[in-house]
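Collaborator request, handled under Task 6.
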Amino acid sequence: MDAEMLARRIDDTWVRGATAAGGRRFVVMTGGEPLLQVDAALITAVHARGFEIAVETNGTISAPAELDWVCVSPKAGAILVQTRGDELKLVYPQEGAEPERFAGMEFRNFFLQPMDGPMKTQNTAAALAYCLEHPQWRLSIQMHKLVGIR
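Structure tokens returned to the collaborator:
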């Protein structure tokens, strides 16, 4: 699809009642690395249909300034290019991606998200303890996993 076709698909899929009830038209582009596909043409086409645009990126590619919200979720060992934005969401614990490495960067919000898996309970407790000791950081949980939606 080209940018216009994709923007039309987003618009056609939008639940009209949500906007009529006072909700805003907001689309999050994520999955894999969205900045490999999100370009000026797509941003312009989606904005033209009245949507705000957020991306969740791993931060290895610079985000276009025209985006409305930038969430960076860095991975250990990856070179971080995008060092500013609206939120930094760090999976915790992650050897090689300790929160101290990111604390001085220019983000409005800093979140720790407990690493899923067999140590999920311990990782959640550790993330919570870290947030309590370092109030710059807030706990981020994956609600869909807590309520059983996969």
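The cover message to the collaborator said: "The longest strand covers residues 84-92. The mean pLDDT is 93. Please let us know whether this matches your experimental observations."
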